[in-house]
Design brief:
The complex is a heterodimer of chains A (342) and B (269). Chain A is of the alpha/beta class. Chain A has twelve helices and 14 strands. Chain A has two domains: 213 residues, Rossmann fold, CATH 3.40.50.300; 101 residues, Alpha-Beta Plaits (2-Layer Sandwich). The relative contact order of chain A is 0.13. Chain B has one domain. Chain B has twelve helices and no strands. The chains are: A alpha/beta (342), B mainly alpha (269). Chains A and B meet through helix 2, strand 6, helix 3, helix 4 and helix 6 of A and helix 1, helix 2 and helix 6 of B.
């Protein structure tokens, strides 16, 4: 049996990932607390949550790096506990920190892995060469990895996971720490892998990333799955739209908040810095009424905008708390523009 | 880039089935060899201090201790070989600690390979290191006038014993590498332990000149037992008892620490 592709597995009908009640404790902390997951084959599935939500622990369990304390999971039909070797044979994992040998060149790193996968001599070299070309690393192939930039390192790290095309690829925060250009190129690679039939489970704390890449998203917080669906479904669960506004005089924020809640109903969400007010509105008419009320009360607006809810607002609606305290403070509608590292 | 290029499904790929445990271990050995190529400085590290010790002791203390530098070199050189191997055996522990810190072992552990092959690779690197360092020291010793009375067979036997000693001591540092957070801590701990073993031994000075209480320690010090056997091998008058005593410690260390290393490694998250 040739092992160069791991797309075909024992049971073509089984889901890519099927997890039931996966649980992991670290001391008293339930890092992962009874998570169920069903990921169909060929899908990009996003796991979204703030730092410390349990994303990495979940991934490490599914990649056989960490035994679960309770629950079970099957990857491509293979049970984690009963056949870990078969699971390892059909997955690849790219962790948050590049798992590369810094002293070796990019090419040598790939040849090393190709040989471990069973490519011999020339075949290992040519596989490494193909990957280096595909990931735009051919020019740097003879450089030691310690001299690579963050983006190059990440690309090589993902390439290293693809020496033999995995059935399921786990990507733990694949773009954390990358500049926008490098992030876009990693996204492109992830999409083309999915087109090639690889199931991808990726974690991210960037809502835009999940929104851009993932066909389905599970939102996790404190080790529990608090919601799951397509990006559209998650947004729909929160309501049709949000009105965001900034005042000229921040001293009147309290007054404006009361007025809005009276005219529109529901709760006004204040951004972390407290200068932006956001409120869910069902219809543009309601928004009009709210703005008119503010103008009547002589509260001057610096600016306002109306939009579909950002995933941050979705997160707020789901958890009753903003992700803000655990992440850098940004405008509440600013996930997509501001939350990604620059 | 398009999916077809990275996807490795049929014709262009020639992975030829599940590689054996041995071939996995050899691949890791190849990695160790690449490290020599990319970090030639580590050879310098490896050899510099024993060379300095050899020159220093031969010419500074040599005349004062047994009367002439030639006599002293004859006494001292087998010991410096043992000392070098003991010191250098900490490299794989440091390497392991570095690899663990970089997440490299996570990748190895998520591969469908024999789970101990990365260790086997570290050992291959160790054995190469011990052989290279020993050969260089022997070469310098011979330049300075050292003559192994047992000739080539004695030298070959010595070159077989040295990696075994290093292999035994290596486990201590693999365990430290799994427990300690940074490679530097491993090194500090290692030196604290190795220094007294190496200096309170018969490597440099005949224990007959030492105070009684120290002699008691020196005579049971495993490093002394190894040095005695090494002298015997190179002089051609080694006894089986000497060899057995020299191998006792490496064998015990392997029997106790190898399972501990594996247990620590498997338990590690």
């Amino acid at each position: 049996m040739m092992r160069h592709s791991r797309l075909a597995t024992k049971d073509a009908e089984s889901a890519a990932i099927e997890a039931r009640g996966l649980t992991k404790h670290f001391g008293n902390v339930r890092a992962v607390d009874g998570i169920d997951l069903d990921v169909p084959r060929g899908m990009i599935f996003g796991i979204l949550g703030p730092n410390g939500a349990g994303k990495t622990t979940l991934l490490r369990m599914l990649a056989t790096l960490l035994p679960p304390d309770a629950g079970s999971a099957k990857v491509l039909g293979y049970d984690l506990a009963a056949s870990p070797h078969e699971v390892r044979g059909s997955i690849a994992m790219t962790g948050q920190f590049a798992s590369l040998d810094e002293d070796l060149t990019g090419r040598e790193n790939l040849i090393l892995l190709a040989r471990l996968w069973g490519f011999r001599g020339q075949a290992a070299k040519s596989r490494a060469g193909d990957l280096l070309n595909a990931f735009d690393l051919a020019d740097a192939s003879a450089k030691q990895v310690k001299d690579y930039s963050g983006g190059m390192r990440r690309r090589l790290d993902i390439a290293a996971s693809l020496v033999v095309t995995p059935g399921v690829l786990f990507l733990d925060e694949p773009t954390t720490g990358l500049d926008p250009k490098a992030r876009k190129s990693v996204w492109r690679m992830i999409r083309s892998l999915a087109e090639a039939g690889v199931t991808i489970l990726l974690t991210t704390q960037y809502l835009e990333e999940a929104d851009q890449l993932a066909a389905r998203i599970a939102v996790i917080d404190h080790g529990k799955k608090i919601a799951e669906g397509t990006s559209r479904e998650l947004k729909a669960a929160t309501g049709s739209g949000f009105l965001h506004l900034n005042l000229v005089e921040t001293g009147r924020l309290g007054e404006a908040k009361r007025l809005l809640e009276e005219k529109v109903g529901g709760n006004v969400q204040r951004s972390a810095e407290g200068t932006t007010l956001s409120i869910m509105v069902d219809t543009p008419q309601k928004a009009n009424r709210a703005l008119a009320a503010l103008i009547d009360a002589d509260i001057e607006l610096a600016d306002f905008s109306m939009g579909a809810p950002s995933l941050d607002e979705v997160f707020f609606a789901l958890t009753g708390q903003s992700t803000e305290p655990r992440l850098s403070p940004e405008r509440s509608d600013g996930w997509s523009r501001n939350r990604l590292p620059r | 880039m398009d999916g077809a290029e990275i996807g490795c499904r049929a014709d262009p790929c020639e992975a030829s089935g599940q590689p054996s445990a041995l071939s996995n271990a050899l691949v890791f050995g190849w990695r160790a060899v690449l490290k020599f190529k990319h970090i030639p400085e580590q050879l310098f590290d490896l050899v510099m201090s024993p060379v300095m010790f050899t020159l220093l002791f031969t010419f500074v203390f040599g005349g004062a201790l047994p009367g002439s530098t030639d006599t002293y070199l004859q006494y001292f050189l087998p010991g410096i070989l043992v000392q070098t191997v003991v010191f250098n055996s900490l490299y794989s522990g440091m390497g392991l600690s570095t690899d663990l810190g970089e997440g490299l072992f996570d990748r190895f552990r998520s591969l469908p390979i024999w789970s101990l092959s990365p260790f086997a690779g570290l050992m291959v690197g160790d054995i190469l290191r011990h052989l290279i360092a020993s050969l260089i020291i022997l070469f310098i010793g011979i330049l300075l006038g050292y003559r192994p009375e047992a000739g080539i067979p004695g030298v070959v036997a010595a070159l077989l014993l040295l990696p075994l000693i290093g292999f035994g001591f290596g486990w201590i540092f693999l365990v430290l590498g799994l427990i300690m957070r940074t490679p530097n801590t491993v090194m500090t701990m290692a030196f604290t332990g190795i220094m007294p073993l190496v200096f309170a031994s018969n490597i440099m000075v005949d224990p007959a000149t030492m105070p009684g209480w120290l002699r008691v320690f020196v005579e049971v010090n495993p490093v002394s037992l190894m040095t005695t056997a090494m002298r015997g091998l190179l002089a051609g008058n080694v006894t089986l008892t000497q060899l057995g005593l020299a191998l006792l410690t490496p064998a015990l260390l392997t029997a106790v620490l190898a399972p501990l290393t594996l247990w620590l490694y498997r338990r590690r998250n």
